[in-house]
Design brief:
This protein is mainly α. It is 64% helix and 3% strand.
């Protein structure tokens, strides 16, 4: 029987296979990189022989991915990885060199094109755009002034106070005519006049005006203010009911009795009795 030495072969088949993985077990055929695979011969023609090495590259990389890395063979795996990275870097260097060769003439062409063509066109476009923008701004400013003048005139006619003359924002277009602008001004003035008539008919009109001036529509302001007062009224009634429910006898327990002789007409006595009844006074009629 052979004696087993310390550090002898592993006890499992998988471990044995991993431990015995060497450069000989892994195909170390080197992909040729000294002779360029990609060559710029004449723009835009690029000669490439990459497909001639495709099978070899796939074989090497697939085989490498199938290796099992263990504590015993990890150094060998590191060497294989380094060899693959070295080959890939050499090919990447070729690709980058070709890219520089291809891009250099194009960059020179672009510089000439920019100097002879695009700079002049872009400068002319920017200059004309600035002039057009300035002219359109002046036209729109004139249209806006016309709109505001029409609006103010209508407000004077309808008796709309100055503080309500907020026409708001209108996006005035270049194609808007004076007729269109007059229509917009009249529509706004009529709406404000109707709003003020609605507000004037309300009980809480002062509060409604404040909300209206803050940009709330007249109908919404009326609804909001009325709802707020209804809520306050309801809260006061509930509070009064709650106080009575908590101590209904407090007025009786703290009451005092006095005797008052009253002389009046029958109508006056009736009014006095009604007053006493309405205010929950206890009384006795002595004849």
């Amino acid at each position: 029987m052979r004696s087993e030495k310390k550090g002898a072969a592993p006890t499992t088949e998988a471990a044995s296979t991993a431990q015995n993985t060497t450069h000989d077990d892994y195909t170390m055929t080197t992909v040729t990189t000294s002779s360029p695979l990609i060559v710029v011969e004449q723009l835009p023609v690029i000669t490439e022989r990459l497909r001639s090495v495709k099978d070899e590259v796939l074989k090497k990389t697939t085989q490498a991915q199938g290796l099992v890395c263990t504590e015993d063979n990890y150094k060998v795996i590191k060497q294989i990885r380094a060899a693959l990275n070295k080959e890939f870097k050499a090919l990447e260097d070729q690709r980058k060199a070709v890219k520089e060769q291809v891009m250099a003439p194009y960059k020179a062409f672009e510089d000439v094109y920019k100097e002879c063509v695009s700079d002049a066109y872009k400068a002319a476009d920017a200059d004309l755009k600035s002039k057009i923008d300035e002219a359109e701004a002046a036209i729109k400013a004139h249209k806006e002034s016309y709109l505001l003048a029409e609006f103010d005139g209508l407000c004077d006619e309808y008796g709309i106070p100055e503080k309500f003359r907020n026409i708001g924002y209108y996006k005035i277009g270049m194609s808007d005519t004076e007729s269109t602008l007059r229509y917009l001004a009249e529509e706004k003035a009529v709406n404000i006049k109707s709003d003020l008539m609605l507000i004037e008919s309300q009980v809480y009109k002062d509060e409604i005006v404040l909300e209206y001036l803050n940009g709330v529509s007249a109908s919404m302001a009326v609804t909001s203010v009325n709802a707020r007062h209804e809520a306050l009224k309801k809260a006061a009634e509930e509070e009064a009911e709650k106080m009575l429910a908590e101590d209904p006898w407090s007025d009786i327990l703290d009451s005092v009795s006095v005797t008052i002789r009253v002389r009046s007409t029958s109508a006056g006595i009736k009014r006095l009795k009604a007053f006493l009844d309405d205010h929950a006074y206890g009384y006795e009629v002595v004849k």
